[in-house]
Amino acid sequence: MSRFVGPIMQNGYVVRDLESAMRHWVERLGVGPFYVLPRVEFAETLFRGQAVDIQMAVATAYSGDLQIELVQQLNDAPSVYQEFLDAGRAGLHHVGVATGDYATDLARATAHGLTVAQGGSTRAGTGFAYFDNRSEEHTSE
Description:
Layout: E1 8-14, H1 18-29, E2 35-37, E3 42-47, E4 50-51, E5 56-63, E6 66-73, H2 80-86, E7 91-97, H3 102-111, E8 116-122, E9 127-131
Parallel strand pairs: 1-6
Antiparallel strand pairs: 1-7, 2-5, 3-4, 3-8, 5-6, 8-9
């Protein structure tokens, strides 16, 4: 991914219990303190092309230069987070990169065949996109 926009700056974890997850990171791993947004405000969110109202809480902290993001969805709206949980998963969900030019980098990524599963913008005007990897095969080689 870094060849499109830049280096990975975030590991995002989907969790079922934000408080418990923060405790784990602080007490077991020594990462913290966490900055908590009890409700993330979106201007627009699209999941697989459909408008959705995702309610979620987020906590972020740093381990060196790497941001650790913990995401707890608070409702059952369709989303990349809910799909992950419904598949019986929790834990590392995504890696994030920062971009200096969101529109250009998004166009570059989609031109290389990446498909947006979920995207939109925050009320502060920050754009975001989660790229779909459901059809890709992953190996440990």
